[in-house]
Amino acid sequence: MEQIDKVLPMGRYPVDLDTEPEKRYDELFQKQEIQDLIPTLRQGVKDMMSVIPEEVRPLLVKLLAELDQCLPQPFAGEMRGIARCTGIDLGEIVGLNLGYDLSTFCTSIVAQDSKGTIWHGRNMDLVKEFAKTSEFLRSTAIMIDFQSKGQTLYTSTTYLGYVGAPTGQSPDKFTVSVNLRREYNSIGQQVYKTIKDLTRRKVNSVH
User: Fold this and answer.
1) Which residues lie closer than 8 Å to 75 by C-beta, 6 or more apart?
2) I want to staple 156 with a disulfide (CB 3.0 to 4.6 A). Which of 39, 100, 139, 165 is the partner?
3) 66-111 confidence digits (pLDDT tens)
4) What is residue 167's three-state secondary structure?
């Protein structure tokens, strides 16, 4: 598996958790360098959706937009705000966020060195076999300092358009990361079940 070894600089930005979820990312998306990444984000969503048969794609996007109503706050509100800021369909933003929970990429390790220091590391599995996805993630990777009352509560290495913290650390407290999964995890299973239920409900409503 050939790795992509080019290193790109990663921006670091604050996000105010005291702001209501639907407006929480407004300041971030007003920055010019983030505005410049919106076409990349839009293309990444398009590439992601291209694996779905074209004839069912509009229905899936509509279902994913309805799935937003089933997601807990603040994530649902944050996704609606990101959709508004980027002009990308809400269903596509929901799909972008759920895609990682339904995939099996990236690996984390926890190790202890000879001095007793604990190290928590995570790779991004950027490989040439998945060139489009790897280039998209590499280009949109950012660091976010989630703050309240001017203090950073935790920092996340994430991707533009994603909510939550796939990788994060709270200063002098703990670190977290989403690790590789060989099967659907419990979140993925619930997402899959919810999409099936929404599909059944939508089909039944037209009969």
Assistant:
1) 21, 97, 163, 164
2) 165
3) 776 777 789 999 999 999 999 999 989 988 888 766 665 677 889 9
4) strand
On whether the CB atoms of residues 75 and 83 are closer than 8 A, the answer is no
71, 82 in Cβ contact below 8 A?
no
The token duo for 166 is 């796939």
Nearest-5° angle of CA 122, CA 187, CA 3?
30
pLDDT given at position 49: 79
Instruction: Name which residue leads in pLDDT, 62 or 141.
Output: 141
This prediction's pTM: 0.79
Domain coordinates in residue numbering, the chain: 12-202
Instruction: With beta carbons less than 8 A apart as the criterion, state whether 69 and 76 touch.
Output: yes
- Among residues 103, 108, 71, 109, the alpha carbon closest in space to that of 90 is found at 71
- Pairing assessment for the beta strands 141-148 and 12-16 based on DSSP bridges: parallel
Alpha carbon 145 to its chain's center: 16
3-state helix, strand, coil in the chain (%, to 5): 45, 20, 35
DSSP symbols for 84-111: HHHT--HHHHHHHHHHGGGS----EEEE
Radius of gyration of the CA atoms of the chain, in A: 18
Mean pLDDT of the chain: 81
What's the whole-number mean pLDDT along residues 117-131? 73
Residues that are catalytic: 106
